[in-house]
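Researcher: I've got a protein sequence and the SMILES for zinc ion. Could you write out the 3D structure of the bound complex as C-alpha coordinates? I'd like something to compare against our soaking experiments later this week.
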Amino acid sequence: MAEKRAAEPAFRAAIDLERLKGRLTALAEIGADPSGQGVHRLSFSAADMEARRWIRREMEGIGLKTRIDAVGNVIGRWEVGDGPAVLLGSHLDSVPHGGAFDGALGVVAALECVEALMDHGIEPAAPVEVIGTSEEEGRFGGMLGAQAMAGVVPESWFLTTADDQGVKLVDAMRQAGLDPDAYRSARRDPAEVKAFLELHIEQGPVLDRAARPVGIVEGISGVFNWVVVMTGAANHAGTTPMELRNDAFRGLADFAAAVPEILAEQGTPASRLTVGKVDLEPNFPHTVPGRAEFSIVGRDMDEAVMTALAGACRTALAAAAERNGLILEISEISWLGPTPCDGDIVAAFARQAAALGLAPPLMPSGAGHDTQIMAQLTRAGMIFVASAGGVSHAPDEHSDWPDIEAGTNLLLHTLLDVARHGLRGDERLPGMSDD
Ligand SMILES: [Zn+2]
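Model: Sure. Here is the predicted complex with zinc ion in place.
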Protein backbone atom coordinates (compact mmCIF):
# COMPACT_ATOMS: atom_id res chain seq x y z
CA MET A 1 0.00 0.00 0.00
CA ALA A 2 3.05 2.25 0.15
CA GLU A 3 2.48 3.40 -3.40
CA LYS A 4 -1.13 4.31 -2.71
CA ARG A 5 -0.10 6.28 0.33
CA ALA A 6 2.46 8.18 -1.72
CA ALA A 7 -0.22 9.37 -4.10
CA GLU A 8 -2.95 10.15 -1.58
CA PRO A 9 -1.57 10.18 1.94
CA ALA A 10 -4.10 8.88 4.43
CA PHE A 11 -2.70 11.07 7.19
CA ARG A 12 -1.57 14.61 7.50
CA ALA A 13 2.15 15.13 7.24
CA ALA A 14 3.53 17.78 9.56
CA ILE A 15 6.82 19.61 9.73
CA ASP A 16 9.35 19.31 12.55
CA LEU A 17 9.43 22.77 14.12
CA GLU A 18 12.47 22.07 16.31
CA ARG A 19 14.53 21.10 13.27
CA LEU A 20 13.42 24.23 11.41
CA LYS A 21 14.23 26.35 14.46
CA GLY A 22 17.69 24.79 14.68
CA ARG A 23 18.44 25.59 11.05
CA LEU A 24 17.11 29.14 11.22
CA THR A 25 19.18 29.78 14.35
CA ALA A 26 22.31 28.36 12.75
CA LEU A 27 21.77 30.42 9.61
CA ALA A 28 21.29 33.61 11.68
CA GLU A 29 24.77 33.10 13.13
CA ILE A 30 26.31 33.43 9.67
CA GLY A 31 26.89 37.16 9.28
CA ALA A 32 25.66 37.94 12.79
CA ASP A 33 26.87 41.37 13.85
CA PRO A 34 29.39 40.84 16.68
CA SER A 35 27.83 43.66 18.72
CA GLY A 36 24.39 42.09 18.49
CA GLN A 37 23.08 44.41 15.79
CA GLY A 38 21.30 41.77 13.75
CA VAL A 39 22.23 39.82 10.64
CA HIS A 40 24.59 41.57 8.23
CA ARG A 41 24.69 39.35 5.15
CA LEU A 42 24.93 41.66 2.17
CA SER A 43 24.74 39.95 -1.18
CA PHE A 44 28.02 38.41 -2.38
CA SER A 45 29.80 39.27 0.88
CA ALA A 46 31.87 36.56 2.57
CA ALA A 47 28.97 35.92 4.99
CA ASP A 48 26.44 35.63 2.17
CA MET A 49 28.60 33.08 0.35
CA GLU A 50 29.20 31.17 3.59
CA ALA A 51 25.41 30.98 4.11
CA ARG A 52 25.07 29.60 0.59
CA ARG A 53 27.66 26.89 1.20
CA TRP A 54 26.02 26.09 4.55
CA ILE A 55 22.52 25.61 3.14
CA ARG A 56 24.01 23.57 0.29
CA ARG A 57 25.56 21.18 2.84
CA GLU A 58 22.20 20.96 4.63
CA MET A 59 20.53 20.10 1.31
CA GLU A 60 23.15 17.46 0.57
CA GLY A 61 22.70 16.09 4.08
CA ILE A 62 19.16 15.01 3.20
CA GLY A 63 20.12 13.67 -0.21
CA LEU A 64 19.25 16.52 -2.55
CA LYS A 65 21.27 17.03 -5.71
CA THR A 66 22.75 20.50 -5.37
CA ARG A 67 24.39 23.26 -7.37
CA ILE A 68 25.14 26.96 -7.13
CA ASP A 69 24.36 28.70 -10.41
CA ALA A 70 26.32 31.51 -12.07
CA VAL A 71 24.60 34.27 -10.08
CA GLY A 72 24.76 32.51 -6.71
CA ASN A 73 21.34 30.87 -6.45
CA VAL A 74 21.67 27.68 -4.36
CA ILE A 75 19.49 24.90 -5.74
CA GLY A 76 18.77 21.50 -4.17
CA ARG A 77 16.71 19.12 -6.25
CA TRP A 78 14.64 16.18 -4.98
CA GLU A 79 14.25 13.88 -7.96
CA VAL A 80 10.80 12.41 -7.36
CA GLY A 81 7.62 12.14 -9.39
CA ASP A 82 7.76 13.31 -12.97
CA GLY A 83 7.25 16.29 -15.22
CA PRO A 84 8.30 19.86 -14.48
CA ALA A 85 9.51 20.74 -10.97
CA VAL A 86 7.83 22.71 -8.23
CA LEU A 87 10.28 25.35 -6.96
CA LEU A 88 10.18 26.45 -3.31
CA GLY A 89 12.32 29.14 -1.78
CA SER A 90 13.25 32.70 -0.95
CA HIS A 91 16.42 34.77 -0.58
CA LEU A 92 19.49 34.24 1.61
CA ASP A 93 20.96 37.76 1.54
CA SER A 94 19.97 40.41 4.10
CA VAL A 95 19.81 44.17 4.35
CA PRO A 96 22.52 45.83 6.50
CA HIS A 97 21.86 44.85 10.13
CA GLY A 98 18.64 43.06 9.23
CA GLY A 99 16.70 40.34 10.98
CA ALA A 100 17.02 36.56 11.09
CA PHE A 101 13.69 35.81 9.40
CA ASP A 102 13.49 37.92 6.23
CA GLY A 103 14.23 35.59 3.32
CA ALA A 104 16.10 33.01 5.40
CA LEU A 105 12.87 31.65 6.87
CA GLY A 106 11.51 30.92 3.40
CA VAL A 107 14.61 28.90 2.51
CA VAL A 108 14.76 26.80 5.69
CA ALA A 109 10.96 26.31 5.59
CA ALA A 110 11.24 24.98 2.03
CA LEU A 111 13.98 22.56 3.07
CA GLU A 112 11.94 21.48 6.10
CA CYS A 113 8.94 20.69 3.87
CA VAL A 114 11.11 18.34 1.82
CA GLU A 115 12.69 16.65 4.84
CA ALA A 116 9.31 16.26 6.59
CA LEU A 117 7.86 14.57 3.51
CA MET A 118 10.87 12.26 3.37
CA ASP A 119 10.33 11.41 7.06
CA HIS A 120 6.70 10.53 6.34
CA GLY A 121 7.58 8.49 3.26
CA ILE A 122 5.49 10.76 1.05
CA GLU A 123 6.73 11.56 -2.42
CA PRO A 124 5.24 14.55 -4.25
CA ALA A 125 3.99 13.85 -7.76
CA ALA A 126 6.60 16.20 -9.28
CA PRO A 127 10.29 16.93 -8.65
CA VAL A 128 10.89 19.57 -5.99
CA GLU A 129 13.66 22.16 -5.86
CA VAL A 130 14.61 24.16 -2.79
CA ILE A 131 16.16 27.49 -3.80
CA GLY A 132 18.05 30.17 -1.89
CA THR A 133 18.08 33.13 -4.27
CA SER A 134 20.78 35.79 -4.51
CA GLU A 135 20.89 39.60 -4.33
CA GLU A 136 17.20 40.09 -3.58
CA GLU A 137 17.60 42.87 -1.03
CA GLY A 138 19.11 45.39 -3.39
CA ARG A 139 22.77 46.00 -2.55
CA PHE A 140 23.03 46.37 -6.33
CA GLY A 141 19.36 46.92 -7.19
CA GLY A 142 17.79 43.67 -6.11
CA MET A 143 16.11 40.47 -7.38
CA LEU A 144 19.15 39.40 -9.39
CA GLY A 145 18.83 35.67 -8.64
CA ALA A 146 15.16 35.54 -9.63
CA GLN A 147 15.74 37.75 -12.68
CA ALA A 148 18.50 35.45 -13.87
CA MET A 149 16.30 32.35 -13.48
CA ALA A 150 13.45 34.11 -15.32
CA GLY A 151 15.85 35.34 -18.01
CA VAL A 152 14.94 39.01 -17.50
CA VAL A 153 18.21 40.54 -16.25
CA PRO A 154 18.58 44.01 -17.82
CA GLU A 155 22.06 43.66 -19.32
CA SER A 156 23.15 47.31 -19.17
CA TRP A 157 22.17 47.46 -15.50
CA PHE A 158 23.92 44.17 -14.77
CA LEU A 159 27.19 45.30 -16.31
CA THR A 160 27.30 48.77 -14.77
CA THR A 161 25.46 48.76 -11.44
CA ALA A 162 27.45 49.34 -8.27
CA ASP A 163 26.68 49.46 -4.55
CA ASP A 164 26.74 52.67 -2.49
CA GLN A 165 30.48 52.19 -1.91
CA GLY A 166 31.11 52.14 -5.66
CA VAL A 167 31.79 48.38 -5.83
CA LYS A 168 30.52 47.03 -9.15
CA LEU A 169 28.18 44.04 -9.13
CA VAL A 170 30.31 42.09 -11.58
CA ASP A 171 33.42 42.66 -9.43
CA ALA A 172 31.61 41.61 -6.24
CA MET A 173 30.46 38.45 -8.00
CA ARG A 174 33.98 37.63 -9.20
CA GLN A 175 35.31 38.28 -5.70
CA ALA A 176 32.70 35.80 -4.40
CA GLY A 177 33.93 33.14 -6.84
CA LEU A 178 31.00 33.46 -9.24
CA ASP A 179 31.13 34.00 -12.98
CA PRO A 180 29.22 37.11 -14.04
CA ASP A 181 30.02 36.45 -17.72
CA ALA A 182 27.93 33.28 -17.48
CA TYR A 183 24.85 34.89 -15.92
CA ARG A 184 22.64 33.80 -18.82
CA SER A 185 23.30 30.16 -17.92
CA ALA A 186 21.18 30.62 -14.76
CA ARG A 187 18.08 30.97 -16.93
CA ARG A 188 15.51 28.23 -16.38
CA ASP A 189 13.56 26.57 -19.13
CA PRO A 190 9.88 27.39 -18.44
CA ALA A 191 8.93 23.92 -19.69
CA GLU A 192 10.89 22.38 -16.81
CA VAL A 193 9.25 24.46 -14.10
CA LYS A 194 5.71 23.94 -12.90
CA ALA A 195 5.38 26.58 -10.19
CA PHE A 196 7.22 28.73 -7.66
CA LEU A 197 6.02 28.94 -4.06
CA GLU A 198 7.50 31.37 -1.53
CA LEU A 199 6.98 31.66 2.21
CA HIS A 200 8.06 35.03 3.60
CA ILE A 201 7.46 37.09 6.71
CA GLU A 202 4.86 39.81 6.24
CA GLN A 203 7.21 42.65 7.31
CA GLY A 204 4.13 44.65 8.28
CA PRO A 205 1.57 44.73 11.09
CA VAL A 206 -1.62 43.50 9.39
CA LEU A 207 -1.54 39.80 10.36
CA ASP A 208 -0.20 40.51 13.86
CA ARG A 209 -2.97 43.06 14.50
CA ALA A 210 -5.61 40.62 13.24
CA ALA A 211 -4.08 37.77 15.30
CA ARG A 212 -3.74 35.57 12.20
CA PRO A 213 -0.65 33.38 11.79
CA VAL A 214 -0.67 33.31 7.99
CA GLY A 215 -1.91 35.32 5.01
CA ILE A 216 -2.16 34.45 1.32
CA VAL A 217 -0.68 37.06 -1.00
CA GLU A 218 -3.03 38.04 -3.83
CA GLY A 219 -0.29 39.94 -5.61
CA ILE A 220 2.58 42.36 -5.31
CA SER A 221 1.55 46.01 -5.46
CA GLY A 222 2.54 48.13 -8.40
CA VAL A 223 4.64 51.15 -7.50
CA PHE A 224 5.36 54.55 -9.01
CA ASN A 225 8.28 56.63 -7.95
CA TRP A 226 8.44 60.39 -8.52
CA VAL A 227 10.79 63.22 -7.70
CA VAL A 228 9.06 66.57 -7.31
CA VAL A 229 10.75 69.97 -7.19
CA MET A 230 8.96 73.11 -6.01
CA THR A 231 10.90 76.31 -6.52
CA GLY A 232 10.07 79.61 -4.83
CA ALA A 233 12.40 82.24 -3.42
CA ALA A 234 14.78 81.98 -0.48
CA ASN A 235 14.56 85.08 1.65
CA HIS A 236 15.15 86.45 5.12
CA ALA A 237 12.75 84.80 7.56
CA GLY A 238 12.49 87.96 9.67
CA THR A 239 12.06 90.68 7.06
CA THR A 240 9.85 88.86 4.51
CA PRO A 241 6.14 89.24 5.44
CA MET A 242 4.15 86.03 5.47
CA GLU A 243 1.93 87.05 2.57
CA LEU A 244 4.90 88.00 0.36
CA ARG A 245 6.66 84.63 0.54
CA ASN A 246 7.19 81.99 -2.09
CA ASP A 247 7.81 79.30 0.54
CA ALA A 248 8.70 75.98 -1.07
CA PHE A 249 8.22 74.08 2.16
CA ARG A 250 4.64 75.34 2.43
CA GLY A 251 3.96 73.92 -1.03
CA LEU A 252 5.29 70.56 0.08
CA ALA A 253 3.32 70.74 3.33
CA ASP A 254 0.09 71.61 1.48
CA PHE A 255 0.55 68.57 -0.73
CA ALA A 256 1.31 66.27 2.21
CA ALA A 257 -1.82 67.52 3.98
CA ALA A 258 -3.87 66.61 0.90
CA VAL A 259 -2.69 62.97 0.85
CA PRO A 260 -5.45 61.56 3.12
CA GLU A 261 -8.10 63.17 0.89
CA ILE A 262 -6.47 61.82 -2.29
CA LEU A 263 -6.52 58.33 -0.80
CA ALA A 264 -10.11 58.67 0.42
CA GLU A 265 -11.28 59.73 -3.04
CA GLN A 266 -9.14 57.60 -5.35
CA GLY A 267 -7.58 54.86 -3.25
CA THR A 268 -8.34 51.35 -2.07
CA PRO A 269 -7.32 49.64 1.19
CA ALA A 270 -4.19 48.48 -0.69
CA SER A 271 -3.21 52.05 -1.67
CA ARG A 272 -0.13 53.75 -0.22
CA LEU A 273 1.20 57.26 -0.82
CA THR A 274 4.43 58.29 0.85
CA VAL A 275 6.61 61.40 0.91
CA GLY A 276 9.71 59.73 2.31
CA LYS A 277 12.65 61.90 1.30
CA VAL A 278 12.82 65.67 1.48
CA ASP A 279 15.58 68.15 0.72
CA LEU A 280 15.06 71.79 1.55
CA GLU A 281 17.27 74.62 0.37
CA PRO A 282 18.90 76.45 1.90
CA ASN A 283 17.72 74.37 4.92
CA PHE A 284 18.54 77.07 7.44
CA PRO A 285 16.32 78.13 10.39
CA HIS A 286 16.34 81.84 9.54
CA THR A 287 15.72 81.60 5.80
CA VAL A 288 12.44 81.01 3.97
CA PRO A 289 12.95 77.76 2.00
CA GLY A 290 13.43 78.59 -1.67
CA ARG A 291 13.44 75.05 -3.02
CA ALA A 292 11.89 71.78 -1.91
CA GLU A 293 12.79 68.51 -3.61
CA PHE A 294 10.87 65.46 -2.42
CA SER A 295 9.91 61.91 -3.34
CA ILE A 296 6.40 60.59 -3.85
CA VAL A 297 5.99 56.82 -3.92
CA GLY A 298 2.54 55.43 -4.69
CA ARG A 299 1.36 51.82 -4.59
CA ASP A 300 -1.74 49.81 -5.35
CA MET A 301 -2.79 46.35 -6.54
CA ASP A 302 -4.74 47.80 -9.49
CA GLU A 303 -2.99 49.75 -12.24
CA ALA A 304 -6.12 51.83 -12.94
CA VAL A 305 -6.13 52.91 -9.29
CA MET A 306 -2.43 53.78 -9.56
CA THR A 307 -3.26 55.97 -12.56
CA ALA A 308 -6.08 57.68 -10.64
CA LEU A 309 -3.82 58.26 -7.63
CA ALA A 310 -1.10 59.69 -9.86
CA GLY A 311 -3.62 62.03 -11.51
CA ALA A 312 -4.92 63.24 -8.14
CA CYS A 313 -1.34 63.82 -6.95
CA ARG A 314 -0.64 65.99 -10.02
CA THR A 315 -3.77 68.04 -9.37
CA ALA A 316 -2.95 68.51 -5.67
CA LEU A 317 0.68 69.41 -6.45
CA ALA A 318 -0.40 71.98 -9.03
CA ALA A 319 -2.85 73.54 -6.56
CA ALA A 320 -0.21 73.67 -3.79
CA ALA A 321 2.31 75.28 -6.14
CA GLU A 322 -0.22 77.84 -7.35
CA ARG A 323 -1.32 78.76 -3.83
CA ASN A 324 2.27 79.42 -2.75
CA GLY A 325 3.61 81.01 -5.96
CA LEU A 326 5.96 78.13 -6.78
CA ILE A 327 7.30 76.60 -9.98
CA LEU A 328 6.48 72.88 -10.12
CA GLU A 329 8.46 70.09 -11.80
CA ILE A 330 7.47 66.43 -11.61
CA SER A 331 9.81 63.64 -12.80
CA GLU A 332 8.66 60.07 -12.97
CA ILE A 333 11.62 57.85 -12.04
CA SER A 334 9.80 54.55 -12.46
CA TRP A 335 6.37 53.01 -12.93
CA LEU A 336 6.00 49.30 -12.23
CA GLY A 337 2.59 47.67 -12.68
CA PRO A 338 1.18 45.27 -10.08
CA THR A 339 1.94 41.53 -10.32
CA PRO A 340 -1.01 39.35 -9.40
CA CYS A 341 -0.17 35.94 -7.94
CA ASP A 342 -1.36 32.96 -9.98
CA GLY A 343 -5.05 32.30 -9.36
CA ASP A 344 -4.69 28.53 -9.18
CA ILE A 345 -1.81 28.78 -6.72
CA VAL A 346 -3.83 31.18 -4.57
CA ALA A 347 -6.72 28.68 -4.73
CA ALA A 348 -4.42 25.81 -3.73
CA PHE A 349 -3.09 27.78 -0.74
CA ALA A 350 -6.67 28.63 0.27
CA ARG A 351 -7.85 25.02 -0.08
CA GLN A 352 -4.99 23.64 1.99
CA ALA A 353 -5.33 26.40 4.57
CA ALA A 354 -8.98 25.47 5.04
CA ALA A 355 -8.03 21.81 5.46
CA LEU A 356 -5.50 22.83 8.12
CA GLY A 357 -8.08 24.91 9.97
CA LEU A 358 -6.38 28.19 9.13
CA ALA A 359 -8.37 31.20 8.00
CA PRO A 360 -5.78 33.26 6.17
CA PRO A 361 -6.79 36.64 4.78
CA LEU A 362 -6.06 37.40 1.14
CA MET A 363 -3.74 40.39 1.14
CA PRO A 364 -1.53 42.48 -1.13
CA SER A 365 2.22 42.67 -0.68
CA GLY A 366 3.37 46.26 -0.47
CA ALA A 367 7.01 45.11 -0.62
CA GLY A 368 8.71 43.59 -3.65
CA HIS A 369 9.63 39.90 -3.55
CA ASP A 370 11.26 37.23 -5.74
CA THR A 371 7.74 35.93 -6.45
CA GLN A 372 6.94 38.93 -8.66
CA ILE A 373 9.95 38.15 -10.86
CA MET A 374 9.38 34.38 -10.82
CA ALA A 375 5.84 35.12 -12.08
CA GLN A 376 7.50 35.97 -15.42
CA LEU A 377 8.90 32.42 -15.56
CA THR A 378 6.13 30.29 -14.12
CA ARG A 379 2.98 30.20 -12.02
CA ALA A 380 3.98 31.88 -8.79
CA GLY A 381 2.40 32.46 -5.42
CA MET A 382 3.37 33.31 -1.88
CA ILE A 383 2.23 33.27 1.71
CA PHE A 384 3.09 35.56 4.60
CA VAL A 385 3.80 34.58 8.19
CA ALA A 386 2.90 37.23 10.76
CA SER A 387 5.69 39.59 11.86
CA ALA A 388 5.50 40.32 15.59
CA GLY A 389 4.82 44.04 15.96
CA GLY A 390 5.18 44.41 12.20
CA VAL A 391 8.95 44.92 12.67
CA SER A 392 11.31 44.06 9.80
CA HIS A 393 14.67 45.02 8.30
CA ALA A 394 15.83 45.45 11.90
CA PRO A 395 17.63 43.25 14.43
CA ASP A 396 14.49 42.64 16.52
CA GLU A 397 12.50 41.32 13.54
CA HIS A 398 10.66 38.26 14.81
CA SER A 399 7.89 35.80 14.01
CA ASP A 400 6.32 33.49 16.61
CA TRP A 401 7.21 29.80 16.27
CA PRO A 402 3.58 28.55 16.20
CA ASP A 403 2.90 30.97 13.32
CA ILE A 404 5.98 29.72 11.50
CA GLU A 405 4.84 26.14 12.06
CA ALA A 406 1.39 26.92 10.63
CA GLY A 407 2.87 28.68 7.60
CA THR A 408 5.37 25.91 6.87
CA ASN A 409 2.69 23.22 7.14
CA LEU A 410 0.59 25.23 4.71
CA LEU A 411 3.57 25.38 2.33
CA LEU A 412 4.08 21.61 2.63
CA HIS A 413 0.48 20.70 1.82
CA THR A 414 0.26 23.24 -0.99
CA LEU A 415 3.44 21.77 -2.46
CA LEU A 416 1.80 18.32 -2.55
CA ASP A 417 -1.37 19.79 -4.02
CA VAL A 418 0.39 21.79 -6.75
CA ALA A 419 2.73 18.88 -7.59
CA ARG A 420 -0.30 16.64 -8.12
CA HIS A 421 -2.31 18.91 -10.35
CA GLY A 422 -1.96 19.98 -13.93
CA LEU A 423 -1.96 23.76 -13.57
CA ARG A 424 -2.20 24.12 -17.32
CA GLY A 425 -4.03 26.81 -19.19
CA ASP A 426 -7.60 27.20 -18.02
CA GLU A 427 -7.75 23.87 -16.28
CA ARG A 428 -9.21 24.50 -12.85
CA LEU A 429 -7.91 22.63 -9.84
CA PRO A 430 -10.47 20.22 -8.46
CA GLY A 431 -11.58 21.05 -4.93
CA MET A 432 -9.67 18.34 -3.16
CA SER A 433 -7.25 18.28 -0.28
CA ASP A 434 -4.44 15.88 0.33
CA ASP A 435 -6.17 13.82 3.00
ZN1 LIG B 1 12.73 39.48 1.99
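Model: Confidence is low (pLDDT under 50) at residues 1-10, 425-435. The first strand starts at residue 65 and ends at 68.
Researcher: Great, I'll pass this along to the crystallography team.
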